[in-house]
Amino acid sequence: MGEEVKTTDFEKVIEEFERITKNAENVQKEILRKILEENASTEYLQKLGLNGRTDPESFKACVPLVLYNDLEPYIERMIDGDFSPILTGKPITIMSASSGTSQGKQKYIPWNDEVFETSVDIYQTSFAYRNREFPIQDGKALNFIYSSNFTQRKGGVIYGSATGHLFKSPGFKPLLQALKSPSCSPDGVIFSPDFHQSLYCHLLCGLLFREEIHSIASTFGHSIVFAFRSFEQDWEELVNDIKEGVLSSRITVPSIRDAMSKLLKPNPELADLIHKKCTGLSNWYGLLPELFPNVKYIQGIMTGSMETYLNKLRHYAGEVPVLTSEYGASEGWIGSNVNPKVAPEFATYAVLPQIAYFEFIPIAQLDGTQVELDPVGLTDVKIGEEYEIVITNAAGLYRYRLGDVVKVMGFHNSTPEIKFIRRGGLLLTINIDKVTETDLQLSVETASKFLDEEKIELIDYTSYIDLSKEPGHYVIFWEIRGEASDGVLAECCNCLDKTFIDRGYVISRNTKAIDDLELRIVGKGTFQKLLENHIQRGASVSQFKTPRYVGPTNTKVLQILSENVVKSYVSTAYN
Ligand code: AMP
Questions:
Q1: What is the pLDDT of residues 312-336, one digit of tens each?
Q2: Is the peptide bond before 471 cis (omega within 30 degrees of 0)?
Q3: Model-level pTM?
Q4: C-beta of residue 474 within 8 angstroms of C-beta of residue 522
Q5: Which residues line ligand 1 (CB under 6 A)?
Protein backbone atom coordinates (compact mmCIF):
# COMPACT_ATOMS: atom_id res chain seq x y z
CA MET A 1 0.00 0.00 0.00
CA GLY A 2 2.60 2.51 1.17
CA GLU A 3 5.03 1.56 -1.61
CA GLU A 4 2.61 2.79 -4.27
CA VAL A 5 3.00 6.40 -3.18
CA LYS A 6 6.79 6.47 -2.98
CA THR A 7 7.38 8.44 -6.15
CA THR A 8 4.40 10.75 -5.99
CA ASP A 9 4.12 13.11 -8.91
CA PHE A 10 1.96 15.86 -7.47
CA GLU A 11 0.89 17.26 -10.85
CA LYS A 12 -0.42 13.77 -11.66
CA VAL A 13 -2.35 13.69 -8.37
CA ILE A 14 -3.95 17.00 -9.34
CA GLU A 15 -4.70 15.79 -12.89
CA GLU A 16 -6.32 12.67 -11.49
CA PHE A 17 -8.39 14.66 -9.00
CA GLU A 18 -9.54 16.97 -11.79
CA ARG A 19 -10.57 13.93 -13.83
CA ILE A 20 -12.42 12.32 -10.91
CA THR A 21 -14.23 15.49 -9.91
CA LYS A 22 -15.34 16.18 -13.51
CA ASN A 23 -16.97 12.79 -13.43
CA ALA A 24 -18.17 12.87 -9.81
CA GLU A 25 -21.64 11.43 -10.44
CA ASN A 26 -20.32 8.29 -12.14
CA VAL A 27 -17.50 7.94 -9.65
CA GLN A 28 -20.13 7.98 -6.88
CA LYS A 29 -22.17 5.25 -8.61
CA GLU A 30 -19.02 3.21 -9.03
CA ILE A 31 -17.94 3.49 -5.40
CA LEU A 32 -21.44 2.55 -4.24
CA ARG A 33 -21.44 -0.46 -6.59
CA LYS A 34 -18.05 -1.56 -5.24
CA ILE A 35 -19.06 -1.17 -1.57
CA LEU A 36 -22.34 -3.03 -2.05
CA GLU A 37 -20.78 -5.79 -4.13
CA GLU A 38 -17.98 -6.44 -1.66
CA ASN A 39 -20.40 -6.50 1.25
CA ALA A 40 -23.41 -8.16 -0.40
CA SER A 41 -23.13 -11.18 1.88
CA THR A 42 -23.32 -9.17 5.11
CA GLU A 43 -26.08 -9.86 7.56
CA TYR A 44 -27.02 -6.19 7.54
CA LEU A 45 -27.52 -5.81 3.79
CA GLN A 46 -29.07 -9.29 3.41
CA LYS A 47 -31.68 -8.47 6.00
CA LEU A 48 -32.63 -5.31 4.14
CA GLY A 49 -33.40 -7.32 1.01
CA LEU A 50 -31.01 -5.59 -1.34
CA ASN A 51 -30.48 -8.96 -3.05
CA GLY A 52 -27.23 -8.02 -4.68
CA ARG A 53 -28.54 -4.83 -6.30
CA THR A 54 -25.99 -2.03 -6.34
CA ASP A 55 -27.70 0.95 -7.98
CA PRO A 56 -28.41 4.14 -5.98
CA GLU A 57 -32.21 3.86 -6.40
CA SER A 58 -32.48 0.33 -4.95
CA PHE A 59 -29.98 1.30 -2.27
CA LYS A 60 -32.07 4.27 -1.17
CA ALA A 61 -35.28 2.24 -1.32
CA CYS A 62 -34.01 -0.66 0.83
CA VAL A 63 -31.46 0.82 3.20
CA PRO A 64 -32.64 3.23 5.92
CA LEU A 65 -30.81 6.28 7.16
CA VAL A 66 -29.25 5.39 10.51
CA LEU A 67 -27.71 6.99 13.56
CA TYR A 68 -24.98 5.46 15.66
CA ASN A 69 -27.52 4.04 18.12
CA ASP A 70 -29.10 1.99 15.32
CA LEU A 71 -25.77 0.32 14.57
CA GLU A 72 -24.75 -0.17 18.17
CA PRO A 73 -26.25 -3.68 18.58
CA TYR A 74 -24.27 -4.87 15.52
CA ILE A 75 -21.11 -3.15 16.69
CA GLU A 76 -21.51 -4.63 20.20
CA ARG A 77 -21.49 -8.12 18.68
CA MET A 78 -18.38 -7.30 16.67
CA ILE A 79 -16.74 -5.99 19.85
CA ASP A 80 -17.58 -9.27 21.56
CA GLY A 81 -15.59 -11.11 18.90
CA ASP A 82 -18.29 -12.18 16.45
CA PHE A 83 -16.27 -12.30 13.23
CA SER A 84 -19.13 -13.35 10.96
CA PRO A 85 -19.92 -10.89 8.12
CA ILE A 86 -22.11 -8.53 10.12
CA LEU A 87 -21.50 -5.12 8.57
CA THR A 88 -18.58 -5.92 6.28
CA GLY A 89 -17.75 -8.94 4.13
CA LYS A 90 -14.26 -9.17 5.57
CA PRO A 91 -14.16 -9.47 9.37
CA ILE A 92 -13.39 -6.34 11.36
CA THR A 93 -10.46 -6.78 13.73
CA ILE A 94 -9.81 -3.13 14.52
CA MET A 95 -12.15 -0.55 16.04
CA SER A 96 -11.71 3.18 16.41
CA ALA A 97 -13.12 4.98 19.39
CA SER A 98 -14.31 8.41 18.34
CA SER A 99 -13.65 11.26 20.76
CA GLY A 100 -17.28 11.59 21.97
CA THR A 101 -16.46 14.78 23.74
CA SER A 102 -19.78 16.43 24.57
CA GLN A 103 -21.89 13.67 26.07
CA GLY A 104 -18.91 11.77 27.42
CA LYS A 105 -19.89 8.63 25.52
CA GLN A 106 -17.52 7.13 22.97
CA LYS A 107 -18.63 5.60 19.70
CA TYR A 108 -16.88 2.56 18.26
CA ILE A 109 -16.37 2.62 14.52
CA PRO A 110 -14.96 -0.24 12.39
CA TRP A 111 -11.50 0.38 10.90
CA ASN A 112 -9.90 -1.56 8.04
CA ASP A 113 -7.34 -1.27 5.22
CA GLU A 114 -9.83 0.61 3.06
CA VAL A 115 -9.87 3.38 5.67
CA PHE A 116 -6.10 3.62 5.31
CA GLU A 117 -6.44 3.86 1.54
CA THR A 118 -8.90 6.75 1.84
CA SER A 119 -6.39 8.47 4.14
CA VAL A 120 -3.77 8.17 1.39
CA ASP A 121 -6.19 9.77 -1.09
CA ILE A 122 -7.10 12.59 1.26
CA TYR A 123 -3.55 13.42 2.36
CA GLN A 124 -2.17 13.20 -1.18
CA THR A 125 -4.86 15.46 -2.58
CA SER A 126 -4.49 18.11 0.13
CA PHE A 127 -0.72 17.98 -0.17
CA ALA A 128 -0.67 18.21 -3.98
CA TYR A 129 -2.73 21.42 -3.99
CA ARG A 130 -0.89 22.82 -0.99
CA ASN A 131 2.47 22.11 -2.54
CA ARG A 132 1.50 23.93 -5.72
CA GLU A 133 0.92 27.12 -3.71
CA PHE A 134 3.53 26.57 -0.99
CA PRO A 135 6.23 24.33 -2.48
CA ILE A 136 8.58 22.62 -0.07
CA GLN A 137 11.86 20.84 -0.72
CA ASP A 138 12.78 17.54 0.88
CA GLY A 139 13.15 18.07 4.59
CA LYS A 140 11.33 17.22 7.77
CA ALA A 141 8.05 18.07 9.42
CA LEU A 142 7.48 18.77 13.08
CA ASN A 143 4.36 16.63 13.35
CA PHE A 144 2.64 16.76 16.72
CA ILE A 145 1.18 13.31 16.41
CA TYR A 146 0.49 10.95 19.27
CA SER A 147 -0.56 7.39 19.10
CA SER A 148 -3.45 6.50 21.38
CA ASN A 149 -3.24 3.47 23.62
CA PHE A 150 -4.20 0.24 21.93
CA THR A 151 -6.10 -2.39 23.86
CA GLN A 152 -7.34 -5.83 23.00
CA ARG A 153 -10.43 -7.30 24.58
CA LYS A 154 -11.64 -10.81 24.96
CA GLY A 155 -12.95 -11.09 21.39
CA GLY A 156 -9.51 -10.23 20.03
CA VAL A 157 -10.56 -6.93 18.46
CA ILE A 158 -7.97 -4.14 18.80
CA TYR A 159 -9.15 -0.74 20.02
CA GLY A 160 -7.51 2.62 19.53
CA SER A 161 -8.31 5.93 17.92
CA ALA A 162 -8.71 6.33 14.16
CA THR A 163 -5.57 8.48 14.06
CA GLY A 164 -3.72 5.94 16.24
CA HIS A 165 -4.52 3.17 13.74
CA LEU A 166 -3.52 5.42 10.89
CA PHE A 167 -0.14 6.34 12.40
CA LYS A 168 0.51 2.67 13.15
CA SER A 169 -0.31 1.46 9.62
CA PRO A 170 2.76 0.13 7.83
CA GLY A 171 2.04 2.52 4.95
CA PHE A 172 1.93 5.67 7.07
CA LYS A 173 5.63 6.45 7.27
CA PRO A 174 6.17 5.90 3.54
CA LEU A 175 3.16 8.15 2.93
CA LEU A 176 4.70 11.00 4.96
CA GLN A 177 7.98 10.41 3.12
CA ALA A 178 6.21 10.60 -0.23
CA LEU A 179 4.58 13.85 0.85
CA LYS A 180 8.01 15.29 1.76
CA SER A 181 6.91 15.47 5.38
CA PRO A 182 8.65 12.72 7.36
CA SER A 183 8.38 13.36 11.09
CA CYS A 184 11.49 14.69 12.76
CA SER A 185 10.54 12.59 15.81
CA PRO A 186 11.40 8.89 16.01
CA ASP A 187 8.71 6.24 16.50
CA GLY A 188 9.65 5.92 20.16
CA VAL A 189 8.34 9.46 20.68
CA ILE A 190 5.17 9.05 18.62
CA PHE A 191 4.22 5.67 20.09
CA SER A 192 4.62 6.43 23.73
CA PRO A 193 2.32 5.66 26.63
CA ASP A 194 2.84 9.15 28.09
CA PHE A 195 1.54 12.14 26.19
CA HIS A 196 3.46 14.80 28.16
CA GLN A 197 6.76 13.02 27.62
CA SER A 198 5.98 12.63 23.90
CA LEU A 199 5.18 16.29 23.59
CA TYR A 200 8.41 17.35 25.32
CA CYS A 201 10.43 15.16 22.98
CA HIS A 202 8.56 16.29 19.85
CA LEU A 203 9.66 19.82 20.78
CA LEU A 204 13.20 18.67 21.46
CA CYS A 205 13.41 16.85 18.11
CA GLY A 206 12.05 19.94 16.36
CA LEU A 207 14.83 22.03 17.90
CA LEU A 208 17.52 19.50 17.04
CA PHE A 209 16.42 19.48 13.38
CA ARG A 210 15.41 23.13 13.35
CA GLU A 211 17.02 24.01 10.01
CA GLU A 212 15.40 21.09 8.22
CA ILE A 213 11.86 21.71 9.45
CA HIS A 214 9.72 23.11 6.65
CA SER A 215 6.27 22.44 8.06
CA ILE A 216 4.62 22.16 11.45
CA ALA A 217 1.52 20.03 11.60
CA SER A 218 -0.99 18.18 13.73
CA THR A 219 -4.34 16.56 13.06
CA PHE A 220 -6.26 19.36 14.83
CA GLY A 221 -4.81 22.85 15.36
CA HIS A 222 -5.32 22.62 19.11
CA SER A 223 -2.33 20.25 19.45
CA ILE A 224 0.07 22.85 17.98
CA VAL A 225 -1.14 25.63 20.27
CA PHE A 226 -0.99 23.29 23.23
CA ALA A 227 2.58 22.28 22.28
CA PHE A 228 3.90 25.83 22.13
CA ARG A 229 2.11 26.87 25.29
CA SER A 230 4.08 24.02 26.89
CA PHE A 231 7.21 25.32 25.18
CA GLU A 232 6.72 28.65 26.93
CA GLN A 233 6.91 26.76 30.24
CA ASP A 234 9.65 24.27 29.40
CA TRP A 235 11.98 26.01 26.98
CA GLU A 236 14.83 26.47 29.44
CA GLU A 237 14.83 22.79 30.30
CA LEU A 238 14.83 21.92 26.59
CA VAL A 239 17.75 24.26 25.99
CA ASN A 240 19.61 22.66 28.88
CA ASP A 241 19.08 19.18 27.45
CA ILE A 242 20.58 20.34 24.16
CA LYS A 243 23.50 22.02 25.91
CA GLU A 244 24.39 19.00 28.03
CA GLY A 245 23.32 16.34 25.56
CA VAL A 246 21.41 14.68 28.39
CA LEU A 247 17.69 14.13 28.37
CA SER A 248 15.73 15.65 31.26
CA SER A 249 14.94 13.28 34.11
CA ARG A 250 11.26 14.05 33.53
CA ILE A 251 11.42 11.55 30.65
CA THR A 252 11.03 8.21 32.34
CA VAL A 253 9.62 5.96 29.60
CA PRO A 254 12.54 3.72 28.54
CA SER A 255 11.50 3.54 24.87
CA ILE A 256 11.46 7.35 24.61
CA ARG A 257 14.79 7.69 26.42
CA ASP A 258 16.23 5.06 24.15
CA ALA A 259 14.98 6.76 20.98
CA MET A 260 16.14 10.20 22.12
CA SER A 261 19.59 9.05 23.23
CA LYS A 262 20.37 8.31 19.58
CA LEU A 263 19.73 11.95 18.65
CA LEU A 264 20.97 13.95 21.59
CA LYS A 265 24.63 15.06 21.76
CA PRO A 266 25.99 18.04 23.71
CA ASN A 267 25.52 21.11 21.50
CA PRO A 268 26.18 24.30 23.50
CA GLU A 269 26.20 26.41 20.34
CA LEU A 270 22.66 25.40 19.37
CA ALA A 271 21.54 25.76 22.99
CA ASP A 272 22.93 29.31 23.07
CA LEU A 273 21.26 30.23 19.84
CA ILE A 274 17.84 29.01 20.97
CA HIS A 275 18.30 30.75 24.31
CA LYS A 276 19.01 34.04 22.52
CA LYS A 277 16.04 33.61 20.21
CA CYS A 278 13.66 32.94 23.08
CA THR A 279 14.82 35.79 25.25
CA GLY A 280 14.78 38.18 22.28
CA LEU A 281 11.08 37.74 21.56
CA SER A 282 8.35 39.98 22.80
CA ASN A 283 5.54 37.90 24.29
CA TRP A 284 6.52 34.98 21.99
CA TYR A 285 5.33 36.75 18.87
CA GLY A 286 6.83 35.05 15.79
CA LEU A 287 8.29 32.20 17.85
CA LEU A 288 7.90 29.59 15.11
CA PRO A 289 9.95 31.20 12.35
CA GLU A 290 12.59 32.14 14.94
CA LEU A 291 12.93 28.54 16.06
CA PHE A 292 12.48 27.02 12.60
CA PRO A 293 13.99 29.41 10.05
CA ASN A 294 12.88 27.39 7.01
CA VAL A 295 9.30 26.71 8.01
CA LYS A 296 6.94 27.41 5.10
CA TYR A 297 3.57 26.82 6.77
CA ILE A 298 1.70 25.54 9.79
CA GLN A 299 -1.04 23.08 8.89
CA GLY A 300 -3.77 20.93 10.39
CA ILE A 301 -7.53 21.09 10.79
CA MET A 302 -8.10 24.73 11.66
CA THR A 303 -11.83 25.17 11.03
CA GLY A 304 -14.92 24.68 13.17
CA SER A 305 -14.13 24.57 16.87
CA MET A 306 -10.41 24.95 16.02
CA GLU A 307 -10.96 28.56 14.91
CA THR A 308 -10.81 29.47 18.59
CA TYR A 309 -7.05 28.81 18.54
CA LEU A 310 -6.24 30.68 15.32
CA ASN A 311 -5.35 33.95 17.02
CA LYS A 312 -2.83 32.30 19.28
CA LEU A 313 -1.43 30.20 16.46
CA ARG A 314 -0.99 33.24 14.24
CA HIS A 315 0.73 34.99 17.12
CA TYR A 316 3.29 32.19 17.31
CA ALA A 317 3.50 31.92 13.51
CA GLY A 318 4.21 35.61 12.81
CA GLU A 319 4.34 35.92 9.02
CA VAL A 320 4.21 32.16 8.38
CA PRO A 321 0.84 31.11 6.92
CA VAL A 322 -1.54 28.95 8.93
CA LEU A 323 -3.38 26.54 6.62
CA THR A 324 -6.29 24.20 7.09
CA SER A 325 -5.88 20.75 5.63
CA GLU A 326 -8.68 18.16 5.55
CA TYR A 327 -12.14 17.39 6.79
CA GLY A 328 -13.04 14.00 8.18
CA ALA A 329 -14.16 11.99 11.16
CA SER A 330 -13.44 8.62 12.76
CA GLU A 331 -16.38 7.48 10.65
CA GLY A 332 -14.54 8.38 7.46
CA TRP A 333 -12.74 11.07 5.49
CA ILE A 334 -14.78 13.65 3.58
CA GLY A 335 -12.80 16.35 1.81
CA SER A 336 -9.50 18.08 1.11
CA ASN A 337 -8.70 21.76 1.08
CA VAL A 338 -7.76 22.43 -2.54
CA ASN A 339 -7.54 26.22 -2.10
CA PRO A 340 -4.96 26.36 0.66
CA LYS A 341 -4.31 30.10 0.30
CA VAL A 342 -7.80 30.88 1.60
CA ALA A 343 -7.73 31.76 5.31
CA PRO A 344 -9.22 29.02 7.54
CA GLU A 345 -12.14 31.28 8.48
CA PHE A 346 -13.32 31.12 4.86
CA ALA A 347 -11.93 27.73 3.86
CA THR A 348 -13.88 25.01 2.11
CA TYR A 349 -13.21 21.33 1.50
CA ALA A 350 -13.74 19.64 -1.85
CA VAL A 351 -15.46 16.31 -1.25
CA LEU A 352 -13.48 13.36 -2.63
CA PRO A 353 -16.05 11.41 -4.68
CA GLN A 354 -13.93 8.25 -4.81
CA ILE A 355 -13.64 7.60 -1.05
CA ALA A 356 -17.27 7.03 0.00
CA TYR A 357 -20.82 7.38 -1.23
CA PHE A 358 -22.15 10.68 0.07
CA GLU A 359 -25.69 11.94 0.55
CA PHE A 360 -26.84 15.24 1.98
CA ILE A 361 -29.98 15.89 4.03
CA PRO A 362 -31.22 19.45 3.39
CA ILE A 363 -31.21 21.19 6.73
CA ALA A 364 -34.71 22.56 6.04
CA GLN A 365 -35.98 18.95 6.28
CA LEU A 366 -34.36 18.54 9.69
CA ASP A 367 -35.73 21.80 11.02
CA GLY A 368 -39.19 21.42 9.47
CA THR A 369 -42.02 19.02 10.03
CA GLN A 370 -41.16 16.62 7.17
CA VAL A 371 -41.39 13.08 8.53
CA GLU A 372 -39.47 11.27 5.77
CA LEU A 373 -35.98 12.61 5.24
CA ASP A 374 -34.99 12.65 1.59
CA PRO A 375 -31.29 13.28 1.09
CA VAL A 376 -29.85 14.41 -2.24
CA GLY A 377 -26.78 13.04 -4.00
CA LEU A 378 -23.30 14.57 -4.02
CA THR A 379 -23.69 16.37 -7.33
CA ASP A 380 -27.26 17.52 -6.66
CA VAL A 381 -26.55 19.80 -3.73
CA LYS A 382 -27.22 23.53 -4.16
CA ILE A 383 -24.83 26.41 -3.55
CA GLY A 384 -25.73 28.38 -0.42
CA GLU A 385 -27.73 25.52 1.14
CA GLU A 386 -26.90 23.71 4.39
CA TYR A 387 -26.98 19.94 4.74
CA GLU A 388 -26.26 17.13 7.17
CA ILE A 389 -23.76 14.65 5.74
CA VAL A 390 -24.67 10.98 5.27
CA ILE A 391 -21.87 8.47 4.64
CA THR A 392 -21.77 5.01 3.10
CA ASN A 393 -18.28 3.57 3.08
CA ALA A 394 -16.18 0.42 2.97
CA ALA A 395 -15.89 0.28 6.77
CA GLY A 396 -19.46 -0.99 7.20
CA LEU A 397 -21.40 2.26 7.44
CA TYR A 398 -24.48 2.42 5.24
CA ARG A 399 -26.39 5.72 5.04
CA TYR A 400 -24.88 6.77 8.34
CA ARG A 401 -25.87 10.23 9.55
CA LEU A 402 -22.65 11.87 10.66
CA GLY A 403 -24.44 14.74 12.36
CA ASP A 404 -22.15 17.48 11.01
CA VAL A 405 -23.83 20.35 9.22
CA VAL A 406 -22.04 21.82 6.20
CA LYS A 407 -22.81 24.58 3.72
CA VAL A 408 -22.18 24.26 -0.02
CA MET A 409 -20.07 27.24 -1.07
CA GLY A 410 -19.31 26.24 -4.66
CA PHE A 411 -18.15 23.38 -6.82
CA HIS A 412 -14.79 22.04 -7.83
CA ASN A 413 -15.78 20.69 -11.23
CA SER A 414 -18.85 18.70 -10.22
CA THR A 415 -17.96 17.90 -6.62
CA PRO A 416 -19.14 20.34 -3.96
CA GLU A 417 -16.81 22.55 -1.96
CA ILE A 418 -18.27 22.59 1.52
CA LYS A 419 -17.72 24.73 4.55
CA PHE A 420 -17.97 23.12 7.95
CA ILE A 421 -20.75 24.85 9.87
CA ARG A 422 -21.24 22.93 13.10
CA ARG A 423 -21.51 19.59 14.76
CA GLY A 424 -24.99 18.16 14.76
CA GLY A 425 -27.63 18.62 17.36
CA LEU A 426 -28.60 21.68 19.24
CA LEU A 427 -26.14 22.98 21.67
CA LEU A 428 -27.94 25.14 24.18
CA THR A 429 -31.68 25.04 24.62
CA ILE A 430 -33.88 25.64 27.65
CA ASN A 431 -37.08 27.07 26.28
CA ILE A 432 -37.68 28.12 22.66
CA ASP A 433 -34.02 29.06 22.25
CA LYS A 434 -31.81 27.21 19.77
CA VAL A 435 -28.22 28.24 20.21
CA THR A 436 -25.69 26.35 18.10
CA GLU A 437 -21.96 25.79 18.48
CA THR A 438 -21.36 28.55 15.92
CA ASP A 439 -23.58 31.03 17.82
CA LEU A 440 -21.61 30.28 20.96
CA GLN A 441 -18.30 30.67 19.14
CA LEU A 442 -19.35 34.07 17.75
CA SER A 443 -20.57 35.26 21.10
CA VAL A 444 -17.34 34.20 22.83
CA GLU A 445 -15.26 35.84 20.09
CA THR A 446 -17.14 39.13 20.51
CA ALA A 447 -17.03 39.12 24.30
CA SER A 448 -13.35 38.19 24.46
CA LYS A 449 -12.45 41.41 22.58
CA PHE A 450 -12.72 43.10 26.00
CA LEU A 451 -9.92 40.79 27.14
CA ASP A 452 -7.75 41.57 24.09
CA GLU A 453 -7.87 45.25 24.99
CA GLU A 454 -6.40 44.37 28.40
CA LYS A 455 -3.81 41.97 26.86
CA ILE A 456 -5.49 39.05 28.58
CA GLU A 457 -5.70 35.78 26.73
CA LEU A 458 -8.71 33.51 26.54
CA ILE A 459 -7.24 30.01 26.81
CA ASP A 460 -10.41 27.99 26.18
CA TYR A 461 -14.14 27.85 26.86
CA THR A 462 -17.14 25.60 27.18
CA SER A 463 -20.79 25.86 28.19
CA TYR A 464 -23.43 24.18 30.31
CA ILE A 465 -27.15 24.55 30.99
CA ASP A 466 -27.92 25.00 34.66
CA LEU A 467 -31.41 23.78 35.46
CA SER A 468 -30.86 23.47 39.20
CA LYS A 469 -33.34 26.28 39.80
CA GLU A 470 -36.24 27.67 37.80
CA PRO A 471 -35.90 29.20 35.28
CA GLY A 472 -32.71 27.64 33.94
CA HIS A 473 -29.81 29.67 32.61
CA TYR A 474 -26.70 29.39 30.43
CA VAL A 475 -23.33 28.97 32.10
CA ILE A 476 -20.17 29.79 30.15
CA PHE A 477 -16.82 28.59 31.54
CA TRP A 478 -13.69 30.54 30.61
CA GLU A 479 -10.06 29.94 31.40
CA ILE A 480 -8.01 33.10 30.95
CA ARG A 481 -4.35 34.02 31.26
CA GLY A 482 -3.56 37.32 32.92
CA GLU A 483 -5.23 39.37 35.60
CA ALA A 484 -8.64 40.61 34.53
CA SER A 485 -10.48 43.08 36.72
CA ASP A 486 -14.00 42.34 37.94
CA GLY A 487 -15.22 45.24 35.84
CA VAL A 488 -13.84 43.76 32.60
CA LEU A 489 -15.17 40.29 33.32
CA ALA A 490 -18.59 41.64 34.24
CA GLU A 491 -18.58 43.45 30.88
CA CYS A 492 -17.61 40.20 29.12
CA CYS A 493 -20.46 38.42 30.90
CA ASN A 494 -23.03 40.99 29.76
CA CYS A 495 -21.64 40.92 26.25
CA LEU A 496 -21.94 37.10 26.07
CA ASP A 497 -25.57 37.36 27.10
CA LYS A 498 -26.36 40.16 24.64
CA THR A 499 -24.61 38.64 21.63
CA PHE A 500 -26.74 35.49 21.57
CA ILE A 501 -29.01 36.92 18.91
CA ASP A 502 -31.07 33.75 18.44
CA ARG A 503 -34.68 35.02 18.48
CA GLY A 504 -35.81 32.31 20.88
CA TYR A 505 -33.08 33.25 23.32
CA VAL A 506 -33.82 36.98 23.16
CA ILE A 507 -37.56 36.42 23.67
CA SER A 508 -36.94 34.01 26.53
CA ARG A 509 -34.57 36.43 28.20
CA ASN A 510 -37.00 39.34 27.83
CA THR A 511 -39.84 37.29 29.28
CA LYS A 512 -37.61 35.86 32.02
CA ALA A 513 -38.20 32.31 30.77
CA ILE A 514 -34.40 32.02 30.84
CA ASP A 515 -32.52 33.49 33.78
CA ASP A 516 -29.38 35.64 33.74
CA LEU A 517 -26.37 34.13 32.01
CA GLU A 518 -23.47 33.24 34.24
CA LEU A 519 -19.79 33.50 33.36
CA ARG A 520 -17.64 31.22 35.51
CA ILE A 521 -13.89 31.72 35.42
CA VAL A 522 -11.90 28.55 36.03
CA GLY A 523 -8.36 28.37 37.36
CA LYS A 524 -5.14 27.92 35.40
CA GLY A 525 -4.78 24.47 33.85
CA THR A 526 -8.45 23.50 34.11
CA PHE A 527 -8.81 22.82 30.39
CA GLN A 528 -5.60 20.81 30.47
CA LYS A 529 -7.31 18.68 33.13
CA LEU A 530 -10.13 18.09 30.63
CA LEU A 531 -7.56 16.93 28.10
CA GLU A 532 -6.00 14.64 30.69
CA ASN A 533 -9.38 13.20 31.59
CA HIS A 534 -9.95 12.55 27.89
CA ILE A 535 -6.64 10.66 27.66
CA GLN A 536 -7.41 8.65 30.79
CA ARG A 537 -10.54 7.42 29.09
CA GLY A 538 -8.29 5.93 26.44
CA ALA A 539 -9.04 8.58 23.80
CA SER A 540 -6.46 10.11 21.52
CA VAL A 541 -4.70 13.42 22.11
CA SER A 542 -4.41 13.88 18.36
CA GLN A 543 -8.20 13.99 18.06
CA PHE A 544 -8.90 16.06 21.16
CA LYS A 545 -11.48 18.79 20.75
CA THR A 546 -12.57 20.79 23.78
CA PRO A 547 -16.27 20.04 24.23
CA ARG A 548 -18.11 23.29 23.58
CA TYR A 549 -21.08 22.03 25.54
CA VAL A 550 -21.01 19.74 28.54
CA GLY A 551 -24.13 17.62 28.83
CA PRO A 552 -25.62 16.68 32.22
CA THR A 553 -24.46 13.07 31.80
CA ASN A 554 -20.84 14.08 31.44
CA THR A 555 -20.41 14.17 35.21
CA LYS A 556 -16.63 13.85 35.32
CA VAL A 557 -16.07 16.88 33.08
CA LEU A 558 -18.65 18.88 35.02
CA GLN A 559 -16.96 17.95 38.25
CA ILE A 560 -13.55 19.10 36.97
CA LEU A 561 -15.02 22.41 35.82
CA SER A 562 -17.01 23.01 39.00
CA GLU A 563 -14.10 22.22 41.30
CA ASN A 564 -11.93 24.76 39.52
CA VAL A 565 -14.22 27.78 39.45
CA VAL A 566 -12.41 30.77 40.93
CA LYS A 567 -14.88 33.59 40.19
CA SER A 568 -18.29 33.96 38.71
CA TYR A 569 -20.32 36.79 37.23
CA VAL A 570 -24.04 37.10 36.61
CA SER A 571 -25.24 39.08 33.62
CA THR A 572 -27.19 42.27 34.14
CA ALA A 573 -27.70 42.75 30.41
CA TYR A 574 -31.45 42.19 30.54
CA ASN A 575 -32.17 43.99 33.82
P1 AMP B 1 -13.71 12.49 15.90
O2 AMP B 1 -14.75 12.36 16.95
O3 AMP B 1 -12.36 12.66 16.49
O4 AMP B 1 -13.81 11.47 14.86
O5 AMP B 1 -13.96 13.91 15.24
C6 AMP B 1 -14.64 14.11 14.05
C7 AMP B 1 -15.33 15.44 14.07
O8 AMP B 1 -14.39 16.52 14.11
C9 AMP B 1 -16.14 15.71 12.82
O10 AMP B 1 -17.37 15.05 12.84
C11 AMP B 1 -16.26 17.22 12.87
O12 AMP B 1 -17.28 17.61 13.74
C13 AMP B 1 -14.91 17.63 13.43
N14 AMP B 1 -14.02 17.97 12.29
C15 AMP B 1 -13.22 17.16 11.59
N16 AMP B 1 -12.61 17.80 10.59
C17 AMP B 1 -13.04 19.08 10.66
C18 AMP B 1 -12.79 20.25 9.90
N19 AMP B 1 -11.95 20.26 8.88
N20 AMP B 1 -13.44 21.38 10.26
C21 AMP B 1 -14.27 21.39 11.32
N22 AMP B 1 -14.55 20.33 12.07
C23 AMP B 1 -13.95 19.18 11.75
A1: 999 999 999 999 999 999 999 999 9
A2: yes
A3: 0.94
A4: no
A5: 98-99, 301, 303-304, 327-330, 402, 404, 420, 423, 543
